[in-house]
């Protein structure tokens, strides 16, 4: 039943060196962007990662798995997320019982590193509260260690089928050519790097059982499958790999069924160990709610009959092929794997297709703030067999080897380079965690320093097709606040404004609109339909004007208002100084002379910021060549 093995050298030095070098690179990258000693949302144990980890401090520090009474103190001290969504009130109970949203598997795998952080916190006199710097460091490097372990185990798996040079090259491609790097290094407290490593173990144990069936391997497969489900319930799809492993034809399927009948004690042991691995989650749900099964994601659901395949694959918001372009080579790799090891290609292809369907069926298909399709990171362990097959096929050519290598290697280098540069853009906030659009992606492609015009495309759909020197700008409205009476209630403050002015407007979380808007009638300002205007303001904030917006509202009797808005803080903003923010938009086709244009700043529970020089300008092209891009 075991597929034929590849020619792997006994020492496999190249692949060993690849794992060691990649491990050093990953540690260096982690040290480049530490974040763990900060009390803000850039720390490790934040957002979803906090939800996976929360079992540990709740159980071992606060002894409060049921009510989580310690969480408000943690939220005040460390601000790990904008709101506490990581648990919810137990349905049907009124005693305040809370149920964790995320499964327990990641916390179980983090347990050794949690205790390491707990010990270090006592040794170096940090608060032993589960979230101080030693815990953050321990969990960060613990996740990274699991990621390196996954590469090491994957090396063993690939070595069963491919030459050592191919194995080494594949490991480099997986680590540096996909968004695995993001989740093994920077977001290592999330479930994905743990899933990747568990998949590597699953492949190893599955191959081992099919080569020499044993109860130990069967038990291992069951435990790993159970842990995969405990990290992310949708990883139950991993069961397709051991079930169909070795099945490359109808005859092979019959032989597999015969083997399973013959080895039925192994099958029962596998199922028992899988159930044993699931037991901690079932017991937790039973203790909290009285039921062994709880759907903890509440209103978040799947649309299995209408998956978001297009969005998951090619959207600029989170498209897998856009942000992990190495995946474009998978179809060629499958053809190669089918020719080399059909008994491996069939189960991997079946798994990959079903997994992609399930990932795409999740209604929040962009999976929150993330780089690319994070839900597919764990699947790179099985998919590495496909990439390896492509490399083996090209490097194994006889007549056209030089041509094949000459074509493939530059493509791989470019894809890896693009992936790493996009990682860098993501880490520096150029690639946004959730709000990417086609126009914005095109504007910032290959850019290390985008302009305000580029950042505006996160929020407005278009911009002038030529740069500013090709347009004349005429100011039709300005509010600088210097001539207005001081009125804190109205938002006018005596804090110094921009460009030497003495007053400014205060924008804070409880103030929805900063002072009186700048209001103009279209006819009095000399504005016409389809004319381009620039809306601008200057803003200063010590912590970033997060969730604050610069708004243009166009309103007229009997018409639906038109609203444009851009965020007042972007990656180009500097803290503690005055920044100019602007955007350009065309006026509506149905603009009437009596319509009013209102320019103001709005806060959606945003950060405190000072505002000055609200301005509306008309942009007039100097030549016919400077037509707006539609």
UniProtKB/TrEMBL annotation:
Keywords: Membrane, Transmembrane, Transmembrane helix. The chain crosses the membrane at residues 12-32, 44-62, 102-121, 133-154, 161-182, 188-205, 212-230, 236-255, 267-285, 320-337, 344-365, 377-397, 404-424. It comes from the Bacteria. This is Glycosyltransferase RgtA/B/C/D-like domain-containing protein. It comes from Hymenobacter amundsenii. The lineage of its organism: Bacteria, Pseudomonadati, Bacteroidota, Cytophagia, Cytophagales.
